[in-house]
Amino acid sequence: MKIYTKKGDKGQTQLIGKRVAKTNQRVEAYGTVDELNSFIGVTINALESEKVADMRQELLTIQHELFDLGGDLANVTAKKEWSLSMESVERLESRIDEYWAEAPELRKFILPGGEPAAAHLHVCRTVARRAERLASAIADEHEVSASALPYLNRLSDFFFAAARAVNSRAGKEDILYARSKDVFK
């Protein structure tokens, strides 16, 4: 089997249910989810310390869920069978709470950085936010799974909390934004 099919040479691609332009909102959304998945792969490799072994496993689970979400976003058939469930959202919420409790109290905005793995997690956070915006644009006009938007919203929070936990476990302080007033109370 060859990897190239030549079917996309004229700017078209296949969704689940119909052929569309590669500029279609759904293609942009699931492409961004795929980009996020790739950044997570890089992040897993940056989480070298045994202090963060739990995060490596958690990120691997998220990679599988993102594949499910990409399929859900590509589904334009009349019969919707969603792969991503609200249980994934609930699991993220639990992990967010656990990671958040590990880091010092936060009152000011912080800059992405600290440990290299924390910086990678911040990149994941921003890509997750972009994916959420793109999925929201689709949801404005079309049906998406009930878990898609909450999942992407929690996922960016997960990356933020995980980045802070990585820094905390490494004994590094978050980098405070110099001109931040107290914003978190």
Topology:
Blueprint: E1 12-14, E2 19-21, H1 25-46, H2 53-73, H3 86-102, E3 110-111, H4 116-139, H5 148-169, E4 175-176
Antiparallel strand pairs: 1-2, 3-4
Helix pairs in contact: 1-2, 1-4, 3-5, 4-5
> Given the C-alpha coordinates, what overall shape results?
elongated
Characterize the main sheet: 2 strands, antiparallel
Ranges where pLDDT stays below 50 over 5 or more residues in a row are: none
Overall radius of gyration: 18 Å
Q: What would your notes on this structure say?
A:
By secondary structure, the protein is mainly alpha-helical. It has a single domain, classed as Cobalamin adenosyltransferase-like (Hypothetical Protein Ta1238, Chain: A, Up-down Bundle). It is built from five helices and four strands, in the order E-E-H-H-H-E-H-H-E. The strands form two sheets. A two-stranded antiparallel ribbon has the order 1-2. Strand 1 and strand 2 form a beta hairpin. Helix 1 packs antiparallel against helix 2.
In short:
The chain is 57% helix and 5% strand. It is mainly alpha-helical. One of its GO terms (molecular function) is ATP binding.
Keywords:
about 180 residues; corrinoid adenosyltransferase activity; elongated; two-stranded antiparallel ribbon; two-stranded antiparallel sheet; 4 strands; ATP binding; mainly alpha; about 55% helix
